[in-house]
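Problem 3 from the worked examples.
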Amino acid sequence: GVEVGPQPQGVARADVLDKMRRIVKHGLDFVQLFNEGKEFPPCTIEAFKIMEKVDYPRNKNDEITAIIHPKLQDRDWQPLNNGDPLFLTLDGEVIPYQGNCTVYPTFINEAAYYEKKQAFVKTDKIKLSAKLLRCS
């Protein structure tokens, strides 16, 4: 499967559709070249590994008491460091990120995840290595 976004629910965006088409085309090109016997050298790529889901701050009645800080909104895959603004309470108080390492949030403030009690997902940037690949 291929998921490309962010994209609001029920909205068809031309730029997102174009990205999805290009990803699928690259995948099909790879399959064709592999089937033709092309050899692919070893490589390393950056990827993001999910660490944990983070909920919105809530009160004793389970009601959300803060929203995503404007400086975090629309910054999926960007570094979030200790002390950076994370949430903004309805009273205007900034709640900073308190962590012992840099993380890379994603799925920030997506409507589909409100019911799942997820403000965003913390990820860690990692490197994946692939060995030489050829058709045998």
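Problem 4, a separate protein:
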Amino acid sequence: FPLRRQEEQRFSEQHSSLINKAYQTLLNPLSRGLYLLELNGVEPAQETDSDADSAFLMEIMEINEKLAEPKNEDSLREIETLIKVKQEELTREVTAAFERDDLQEAKLLLAKMKYFANLEDKLKNKKVPS
């Protein structure tokens, strides 16, 4: 009986880990969207894809430059708000694209969401004293 209990424990731990991973994937709009693309057999856009429009890339460059400058709390909050608003806007747009079954549009929007996720990571690193 003790061996069986250990097997049940291991089985339970493995499935708990899988459920946790699935929950985390579905919780985040970017990872959820990438997963939906995968389910539909669509490869996510690669960094090398030149699909991103130049106005968008300029916007990303400007935010990156703002993040590179020495910062005070107010300017960091301003950048944080900008990133959050953009992420919410892109999340709404990608949701609408999936609802229309426009997987190519969803793919492009998810590529843009990745840029903002990277900016968010850079911002978090700025805010946390190293």
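Solution to problem 4. Helices lie at 2-27, 29-39, 54-68, 73-99, 103-127. Residues 40 and 103 are 8 Å apart (CA to CA).
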